[in-house]
């Protein structure tokens, strides 16, 4: 698959709630996931690390809504905007947030993802 196809498939999997398939089908086994500096799980590697990061995130919030933009592709890179509506499990506070996910593709697999958002 080329970068455009990988980006489109990742969006489809996410929209269908097929989160494990995103990692097993589209990501390199040793990929790197980078969050904003100072956040929990700032840098994790591989499917296991990303899975633990995701489990931690969903232990903190309920996802009430998720919208993913069409990908913007440039050679072996693509970016998408995520709009999230979440509810904090401890406080009940609802938030509407957005973040930018930037992905690097090599040899038909995503090797790095990095997220940018206001803190």
CATH A-level architecture: Roll
Give the percentage of residues in beta strands.
Answer: over 45%
Uncertain stretches of 5 or more adjacent residues: none
- Would you tell me the overall average pLDDT? 93
Stated plainly, the CATH topology is called: Nuclear Transport Factor 2, Chain: A
What is the count of helical runs?
Answer: 3
Q: Class by helix and strand content?
A: alpha+beta
- Output the radius of gyration: 14 Å
Can you put this structure into words, describing what you see?
The protein is α+β, with helices and mostly antiparallel strands. It has a single domain, classed as Nuclear Transport Factor 2, Chain: A, CATH 3.10.450. Helices cover 30% and strands 46% of the residues. The protein is built from three helices and seven strands. The protein has helices at 3-15, 19-26, 46-60, and strands at residues 27-34, 43-45, 61-68, 72-74, 77-88, 94-106, 109-116. Strands 1, 2, 3, 4, 5, 6 and 7 form a seven-stranded mixed sheet that branches. Helix 1 (3-15) packs antiparallel against helix 2 (19-26). The longest helix is centred in the middle third of the chain and has 15 residues, at 46-60. The relative contact order is 0.21. The model has no long low-confidence stretch (mean pLDDT 93).
